[in-house]
Automatic annotation (TrEMBL):
UniProt entry tagged with the keyword Transferase: no
PANTHER family associated with the record: LIPOTEICHOIC ACID SYNTHASE, PHOSPHOGLYCEROL TRANSFERASE I
SUPFAM superfamilies: Alkaline phosphatase-like
Bilayer-crossing regions: 28-45, 50-72, 92-114, 134-159
Protein name: Sulfatase
Recorded coiled-coil stretches: none
Record's keyword terms, sorted: Membrane, Transmembrane, Transmembrane helix
Native organism: Mesotoga infera
Domain of life assignment: Bacteria
Length: 286
């Protein structure tokens, strides 16, 4: 009972910082998936619920840090980038606020408390899960997955509607090869029509034909610094001269936040193709 209450409290704190709207479905979704996970741990791990509590607490901690920096939740597909954590340790420290530790600070005290309250090993009477328990677990899993399959949802919308536990379950399912089949044929036809319309000759079509083109792409640069002066001194004098000469300057290109935030920028600039958001484009073609 203590573990259930603590997970609910931590989830509510997490939603207070991350969820766009306070929805009843958030709490209901969290409770439903929590009930399923408790039943699953009863069947598979013989009721080692503290292990589940540690896993959920650590997930909330990582999700919270990730959300503070990117504004959305991590995907299981991004585990391939774990080796790059050391290179971005300064960014991790930047988002590591005192409230971040709410999700993990109690793990050791709760562990000691539960161990102290637990009966001696010789008095344990843990009932083995039967076929009924397994059947209920399977039926419950199917009933929870049905809402996902009945409508086309993006992972982030799943989080805002059904909660963080549902988000990660949905994300795990999508990570299975062949499950996420993309858009339907009729949607593809509509999209192709839009692309063909946009492909019509525009204002700058073929304006650089026969010329050498230099594209300057700056990492983490704020556009307001261009043509800005401080105490009479230009902040970006060289860029100012470049854009005032024989150049085209587009100042309404906005950041497209996604898993391939930096690498996918090439597709936006060179091909006018927006990134996928949930996965780096380069990873889809490896």
């Amino acid at each position: 009972m203590l573990i259930v209450v603590l997970i609910i409290v931590k989830s509510l704190v997490f939603y207070a910082y991350t969820a766009e709207l306070a929805r009843a479905s958030l709490l209901l979704g969290t409770l439903s998936w929590l009930a399923f996970l408790l039943l699953l741990f009863w069947v598979v791990f013989r009721g080692k619920f503290f292990l589940l509590y540690c896993v959920i607490s650590c997930i909330l901690f990582v999700d919270f840090l990730y959300f503070q920096y990117f504004g959305f939740l991590p995907s299981v597909k991004e585990l391939v980038h774990v080796g790059q954590v050391g290179a971005v340790k300064d960014s991790i420290i930047y988002v590591l606020h005192p409230e971040s530790f709410i999700f993990i600070v109690d793990l050791i005290p709760v562990g000691f408390y539960l161990r102290k309250k637990a009966p001696p090993a010789e008095e344990w009477t843990v009932r083995k899960p039967g076929y009924t328990d397994i059947l209920i677990t399977i039926v419950m899993l199917i009933s929870l997955i049905v809402p996902f399959s009945s409508e086309a949802l993006q992972s982030y919308f799943v989080f805002n509607r059904y909660g963080v536990l549902a988000y990660h379950m949905f994300d795990l399912v999508k990570a299975v090869p062949g499950v996420d089949k993309g858009i339907a044929v009729d949607e593809r036809v509509s999209y192709n029509g839009y692309v063909n319309k946009m492909a019509e000759a525009g204002k700058y079509f073929s304006i650089a034909e026969g010329r050498n083109i230099i594209v300057i792409q700056l990492e983490s640069f704020q556009e307001f610094l261009v043509n800005f002066s401080y105490n009479g001194q230009e902040i970006t004098p060289n860029l100012n001269r470049l854009i005032s000469a024989d150049s085209l300057y587009f100042d309404e290109v906005y950041q497209q936040v996604g898993a391939g935030n930096t690498s996918d920028c090439e597709f936006v600039i060179l091909n006018s193709m927006h990134s996928l958001g949930e996965v780096s484009v380069y990873q889809t073609r490896e």
